[in-house]
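Repro case for the chain-ordering regression, as requested:
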Amino acid sequence: MTYPGFQIMRRLTYFIPAALLVLLASGCQPAASSSNEIVIGHFGSMTGSEATFGQSTDNGIKLAVDEINEAGGIDGKKVRLITYDDKGDAREAGTAVTRLTTKDGVAAVLGEVASGLSLAGAPVCQESGIPMISPSSTNPKVTEIGDMIFRVCFIDPFQGSVCAKFAREHEGLKAGKAAILTDQASPYSVGLQEEFEKAFEKLGGKVVSKQTYQGGDQDFSAQLTAIRSSEPDIIFVPGYYTDVGNVALQARKLGLATPMLGGDGWDSSKLGEIAGGAIDGCFYSNHYSHEDPNPRVQEFIKKYSERHQQTPDGLAALGYDAARILFEAIRRAKSTEGKTLAAELAKTKDFDGVTGKISIDGDRNAIKSAVILEMKDGKPKYVTTIQPGA
Amino acid sequence: MSDFVQTLITALAIGSLYALIALGYTMVYGILKFINFAHSDIVVLGAWSSYTLAIRILPWLGLDPHNPATVPPFWVAAVVMLAAMVFCGFVGFAIERLAYRRLRRAPRLNVLITAIGVSLLLQNVGQLNFVFGASPQKMPALLPSWELASIAFGEGESARRVVIGLIDVVIFSLATSLMLMMQYLVFHTKLGVAMRAVSFNTDNAALMGIPVDRVVSFTFVLGSVLAAAAGFLYVTKYPSMNQPAHAVWVLLGLKAFVAAVIGGIGNVRGAVLGGFVIAFVEQFGAFYISSNYRDVYVFALLIVILLVKPSGLLGSPVREKV
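-- result from build under test --
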C-alpha cells in the first residue's frame, strides 16, 4: 500500500532523530559567558495571579545589579541579569531554571517567591550544582532540598508563631477562637496554617473552624458561611493576595466583620486595589515595613522609588537583599564555581540588609525579625516588630 | 437555618451558570455526537470580551474604568452583555465552519482531538499581550451592589442575616429566561424541529430537505451565545478575573460538562437539571461536610450516575445497532 505521503514519511524518519541530535548537542552546551561578566538568573511570576511578586522581586534585583555595575562590578566584572517568567506555574518554573542552568550558564539563580515554585526549581539547581537563593519562600522544605539552596527570609514555623502570638496578645484582638481558611493546593499556605494552629493552641487559643479552598477559586461563600456560624474572634487566611482580596470582599458581603490575619503572601499593592475597604482592619506579618525609620531602609526606598516610580513592598526589599548577599559571596569566593560559592554563601553573617540583619544558619535559612502590618485605607501601616526567640 | 438559606441562594445562582454552559455542551453532543472541548473557552472569551468592552465604555461616560466612582446606568451592562454574546456567536460560527465542518465525515476521534486543539489555541491566543494579556484583571462593577432583601434569623447577639443581592437575582432570572427561550425554540419552532431531526438522524434529515450545515452552524452560534452570557454573568458576580489559560476556567467548563452528562448528554432539559444538581451537591457538601472535597462531591456524583444510570438522569438509553 502506497500513498503520496509515504516517501516523505520515510525520509522524515531519518531526518527527525538527526535534527533532535543537533538540537540536543547545541542545547547541552552552556553559552560560554565572556570572562569579563558574571551572569545571574532570576525566575519569577512576572505574569499570572501572583504577578506583583515576580515584578517586585525583579525590580529589587535590578536595583542591586545597577548599583554594583555603577560601582565597577565585582572585581571588575560586570553583572548581567537574565529573568524568565514562570507564569506562577510549577512546570514553567522547572523549565525556566533548567534553561538558566544549562543554556545560559548562570553562576547562581535567584527565585522564587512562592514556595511551591521554589520547590519546583530547587532540585534542578541542586542537581546541576548551581547555588540558588530564594528571596522569600518561607516553607521549611525549600532549603531541605540540598546544600545548594539558600534563602534570605524567615521560615514558616517562625511566621506562624508570630501570627499566633499577635492574635492572642495584641490589645484589641486578644483572640480566643480562630477560624482558618487555607489554600490546600499551596505548600506555603498549608505549611503556615499548620504552624499557626500549633502555636495558637499552645498559647491557649482554640481553632473553631478549618476550611480550605484552591488557589484561583472564585467562590468562597460555603466556607465563609461555615466560618460565620462558628463565631470566631479572628480568621487566619494564609493565602496569596488575589485570593485574600476575594475572600475579604465576600466575607463583608455576608456581613462577616471579623478581622482577618495572614502572612507575607498578602504583601502586594494589589491587595488594597482588589479588596478596597473590605480589607481594612486586617493584619499580616511581613519582612519589612516601608515606614521603618532606619536610614538603611529609607535610603533603599528613595533609590527604588526613583528607579521604578513606586514604593517597594517586602518582596522588592528581599530581592534586593538576596542579590546583594550573592554579590558579597562572589566577591569573597573570588570565583563563580558552584561549590565554592555555596560555601561562601553559608558563611554570611550579620549582613546589614534592608529587611534586617541577616545571618545564614546551618540549615541555610535566615534568622531575622518579622513585622506586623495593619491595612488602613487599602495601605499597610506598621504595627509592631517581633524578634526571633521572643 | 440562616446558613441553609444562604447556601441555597448561592447554589441557585451558581447552578444557573452551570446550566447555561452545560446547554452548549449538550446541544453540540446531541447533534454531532462529539464533545466540544473548546466550549469552556468561549465562556472565557465571553468574560474577557465583556471586560475589554466595559473598560472602553466607562471612560467615555466620564468614569474611571478600573474603579468607577458610581455605578454606570443599566444600559451599559445590557450593551456589554449583548455585544459579548454577538461576538462569541461569530467566533462559535467561525470555529465550526473552519475547524469542525471539514471533519464531519471523519472518525469521531479526529474531531475530538481537533476540539482540544481549538481549545488550546483560544487559551493561548487569549494570553497574548495584544489580546487580553496573561495577568488577572478586575471587572468594573456594572450593576449596583444593592441588597434586595436582608432577612434576620434569630434575635439579639446571635442574629445572622441572609443577604440576597441584586446580582444573584439578575443571574438567576436572566439565566432562567434564556433557558426558557431555548426550551421554546427547541420544542416549539420549525428550527427546533430541524435541530431535533438532525440530532435523530443526520442523513435522513438531509433527505427530508433539512439544510444540515445551516442547522449545525446555528447550534454552535446558539451554544456560544449562551456561553458568552454565562461568562458575563460569572465575572459580574466574581469580578476578579483569572487570566484566560488559568486552570480555574478549565474546571468551570469541566463541571458544566459533568452537569450535561449527569442530566443526560444530548438532552436539553437534562443539562439544566444537571447544572442545578451539581451546584447543590457542591455547595451543600462544602458547607455541611467539608470544603476540602468541594470538587470531589461533583465528580463522585458523576461516577455514581454513570454506574447506576449511565444515560444520565433524563437521558434515554441508546441501543447501538449491530
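Ordering looks correct now. Residues 5-28 of chain A form the longest helix (24 residues).
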